[in-house]
């Protein structure tokens, strides 16, 4: 069975602070994908990043960076110099890579971390 | 470019009434389609997925059903709503099972 744990239910920071959102996962699959999604107050889920379990290189995109450590089953997300517009619920998710047969790329989501950035 | 549409955005229904939520995708063909439910303050739970017309798989037993009458149309239904069906329903699509899923704006369903 797959499981994603986001232990931080809520985080509150002041604008320009750096913030790290933690994600720990469990899976028996040897290959898998990890994702981060953002859910702003309007409700839609916005895709941020997908990481293949083969690729442990950290990634940076503007103020966003992701630290994937397979040894600790973690895929943490850092926002540098946070802004009020970063306020949202952030979800970490996991799916197996499919190698054939009937498959559907099922996403297992964590419970989400509510990030509030104050001006 | 591809877009996904969900409607209605908000719905208030009495217990025991029927339900029909619609989701359509534009700009792609033969997408994988998904219905998720998000209860208040919780993560997302996959309800149904479809890899083609008429092909529906259910993840959890429940009061809801799904149908895919056309390639890019996915419908979530119920004959009789329960209080526990309240929540935020999200439709998603992907081009392939290994590709990211992209979500619609969601429907907030309140059961009275």
Primary descriptors:
heterodimer, A: 119 residues, mainly beta, 6-stranded mixed beta sheet, 4-stranded antiparallel beta sheet, B: 112 residues, 7-stranded mixed beta sheet, 0% helix, globular
The run of helices and strands of chain B is: EEEEEEEEEEE
- The share of residues in helices of chain B is under 10%
Report strand % of chain B: over 45%
User: In total, how many beta strands of chain B?
Assistant: 11
Instruction: Characterize the biggest β-sheet of chain B.
Output: 7 strands, mixed
Overall morphology of chain B: globular
- N- to C-terminal separation of chain A? 41 Å
Alpha-beta content class of chain A: mainly beta
Average predicted confidence as pLDDT of chain B: 92
Largest interface between protein chains, with number of residues from each side: A-B, 23 and 27 residues
User: Low-confidence parts of chain B lasting 5 or more residues at pLDDT below 50?
Assistant: none
């Amino acid at each position: 069975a797959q499981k994603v744990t986001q232990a931080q239910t809520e985080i509150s920071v002041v604008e320009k602070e750096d913030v790290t959102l933690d994600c720990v996962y469990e899976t028996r699959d040897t290959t898998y994908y990890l994702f981060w999604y953002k859910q702003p107050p309007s409700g839609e889920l916005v895709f941020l990043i997908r990481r293949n379990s083969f690729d442990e290189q950290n990634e940076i995109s503007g103020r966003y960076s992701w630290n994937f450590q397979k040894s600790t089953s973690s895929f943490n997300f850092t926002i540098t110099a946070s802004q009020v517009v970063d306020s949202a619920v952030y979800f970490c998710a996991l799916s197996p890579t499919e190698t054939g047969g009937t498959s559907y790329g099922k996403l297992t989501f964590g419970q989400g971390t509510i990030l509030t950035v104050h001006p | 470019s591809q877009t996904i549409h969900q409607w209605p955005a908000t719905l208030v229904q009495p217990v025991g009434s029927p339900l029909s939520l619609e989701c359509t995708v534009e700009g792609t063909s033969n997408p994988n389609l998904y219905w998720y439910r998000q209860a208040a303050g919780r993560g997302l739970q996959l309800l149904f997925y479809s890899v083609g017309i008429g092909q529906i798989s259910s993840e959890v037993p429940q009061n809801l059903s799904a149908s895919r009458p056309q390639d890019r149309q996915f419908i979530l239904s119920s004959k009789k709503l329960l209080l526990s069906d309240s929540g935020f329903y999200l439709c998603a699509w992907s081009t392939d099972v290994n590709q990211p899923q992209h979500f619609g704006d969601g429907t907030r369903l309140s059961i009275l």
